[in-house]
Amino acid sequence: MTRRARVALPAVILAALGLACAAHQRYVPKGRPVPYQGFFATFPSGLRLVVYEVPQVDRFAVTVSYGSGSAADPAGKDGLAHLAEHLAFRAAPPWAQGARIWDGLLEAGFRFNAETSPDSTDFWAAGKPANLRTALALEASRMRDPLVGVTDDDFAVERDVVLAEYRERFENDPVGAQLAWLRTEAFGDHPYGRTGAGTPESLRAITLADVRAWAKAEYVPRNAIVVVIAPRSTREVTELVLDTFGPLTGDGEATRVQPVARSAPPVPPPPDDEIAPASRTAPVRQPVVWVAWRVPGDAAGEEPKAQFAAAAIDAAFSVKLVQAFGGNASEVVERFDAFYEGFGGAGLVVFRAELARAGDAGKVIDLVKSAAFEVRAEDELRDPAVTRLPYAIGNRLRANVAVSTRDRLLVKGYLAMESIDGSQVARFLRATGQPDFLAGWQRLVAGQLHGVPTDYLNEHLRREQAVALVVLPDRDAPARALGDLASVRGERRDDSEDPSVGPAPGPEEALAVARPPNLAAAERRVLANGLAVVVARRGNLPVAQVDLVVRTRAEGTPEIPPGLPALALGSNQAYFAEHDLERIGADAETRRTGEALHRVARGTSANLDVLLQSTAEWARDQTPRWFDGAHEAFTRRLARLEKDVDFAAARALAAALFPGHPYGASPSADVIGRLASGDASRWLSEEIRPERARLVVVSDQDPSPELWAAIEGHFGGWARGGRDRIPPPPPPVPAARRVLLLDRPGATQAVVLAAFRAPPRAERDEAATEAVRWLLRTRLNQKIRIEEGVSYGVAVSLLDHERGAALLARAAVDRDATVLALRTILGAVERLGAAPLQPAEAARARWQVARAYGSAFDTVDATAAALVTEATYDLPPDHWDRQPAEIAALSPERIQKAAAALALGREVILVVGDAAALRPQLEKAGYAVEAAR
């Protein structure tokens, strides 16, 4: 396609392309075509541009994807690409007068991030359409000189940040470490077998000169794809790109540079003979088995087949497990799942299972390999044990999984459009040469899964091609695995001032950005049985979500002991309701808090009736039919969790934060072990009733008489009759500050969590509290991450209950920086509550809160979440529509008042790490330390 060639890309066709499905009598086409305009060009510099004009969304997304990632790291310097990505945010262009790219993105109020994969490095930013030029200009500046203004100290700090990220993955997220080990087993010395984050040794070997050379060679136009998704015309967007990127496009040059067409490194051939499982230790709660098969990667254009293979193995394994162990299956495998992980040149079909006993690892691995063999087999097995199961292994299973996988992936196309994910577009272009992901993905899925991909399965899922990894629990594993991770930096600075940024817009601009979402206009009715219903239309993409919120009595009382709701729900697996959703590519999940039960089902609006029916069937059928198995599994799992550090940390925090209150209670194996089927049955029958519930329906459909008739037809027969719901009294605030220390022997990091009691949602100034959150997060990250480099980042969140809440500040930091982090957190909260902010600071906070609010209702899922929050906390219907005015009127005094309401001096501080090293530090700093139990 020539430069500036304008092409109207075809509409997204998400119907099944006329494919019949005898196995699915209730099959419904996924939806209607969605019109859009697209543009693709390759500029003379080799830079490629993909533009999607999507008028149905009120935001833009800019993604700049460079076709180089961790697979191209030089030998001995693993982590170089990842470190370059981090440092690119510290670039300080001369025109910015000392401000960094990071500061510019923050000042504009964008949501932004970056990711380094084996084959690419992607930078993205999202915001309101009026600010598209700013995002493009910032990315163009980054491309011109990715590390301009980066100093030796910047490099040292950010290398420590990457090192902290490595620690956090190994110590606090063992799943990430295990997956990295599995890749090593599957790919060996191949670049895909190396960890993209690097190792402590390889990170120390990297110099600033190395990173500069990498960025200069890789962050160049001929290696880049720019993806812009916005509601503005493709011509207008293209002209903006030409204007902001200027010479980077090579516009006007007589010659044309070809884009980089990098071939993925060749993957070694699969083994001829079966390989014995590898074994590792990690800080896991229980033994974990991993099994993987190498399959073709993105470049082969066969991802739908790989997704089918993972889904088929998952389904076949469930049958094999029951065949082998019958009713004792849960005593062997407690959880399992399968998924596909793809890279450019190769991918993995991965199976993972959590086991009850390490001694069963060999049996489970053999069952997984056997399941893969059955998936490849073309003849139906006639084993009598199988005929009683919902799925039979063989042709029937394969046909059902092919259709359900196809439908699920077709739905993914709609969700990709709604989330405007530019990284998927760039990945698809590199893999297939096609710029139109939205239409191309649908064709790819429908073409590859019109039947069972037998040839693909026979070629790639052979028993001898599988690699297996067994991970065994070991509390001391992190210290041995990580070794000496001391920082190489010199003295740390004490300056903790906020970064300098320009003046923020005023109240009028904030009000214009944080526009009311118009949720008060959603139609609301109450059915005769007491069920409250809210129906809202959002956008014009055929996506639907059905949420059912049931407000339950608080657990943690003698009548409702902690853990009873989870046990009761776990004993009532309504298979038929789930099965209907699987058959149309939809999904559902049940979430539970201490005072509410939340059931959510997602799919396309063409199948909205099935989503409603499935939800209604789940609500009406509350019988603990699987109580004995669920009771035994839950009791066994709790007994294991009670020895787990993370579980102990959550339990200790809750008990100290809400002393003597149901909110502070946690389940125990002893209490759960004494419960009977009647307890579960009583809770289900008394709590899950329509008069306590609210149904939320959000889709692209108007709340028509036909839709209301369908809701009445599905939910009108749901009988009322539960017990009255009485909320618990407000929980007492801790009498004084408590510092709890939980031992994780040998840990090189400390997790520092400070929890400040806050007013409940219905009583607090929500806009001012969000401003406090933003200010704390900004100040803490500036000091702990950007200046000190002792943490990957600080998270500030809210823990909400109906009658009590808390603000949580959490950071995983170098062990030696524990006191620094704690003092920084406490000092930041104290300063915010001690005096009103300077007007400029308050204006920046107001602007950031307004910008975030303006993007908070962009999708069906986000809109449904807001309506669910309204139901959970009994907020008035106009709550969300009133917030923009509240945000625009934010003052320094309101922000100070919200910070002062955080009960400073009576907070709960939880520190998790090596107690032998941490206790002396904390006590020397004057903190009275208690051992957490």
TrEMBL record:
Q: Give all residue intervals belonging to the Peptidase M16 C-terminal domain.
A: 206-370, 689-848
Q: What InterPro entries does the record point to?
A: Metalloenz_LuxS/M16, Pept_M16_N, Peptidase_M16, Peptidase_M16_C
Q: Where do the segments described as Disordered lie?
A: 484-512
Domain Peptidase M16 N-terminal residue range list: 55-194
Instruction: Spell out the Pfam families in the cross-references.
Output: Peptidase_M16, Peptidase_M16_C
Task: Report TM segments.
Answer: none
Where on the tree of life does the source sit, at the highest rank?
A: Bacteria
Question: Keywords, A to Z?
Answer: Hydrolase, Metalloprotease, Protease, Signal, Zinc
Q: Which residues form the signal peptide?
A: 1-22
Which family would the database say this protein is a member of?
Belongs to the peptidase M16 family.
Name of the molecule in the record? Peptidase M16 domain protein
Source species, please?
Anaeromyxobacter oryzae
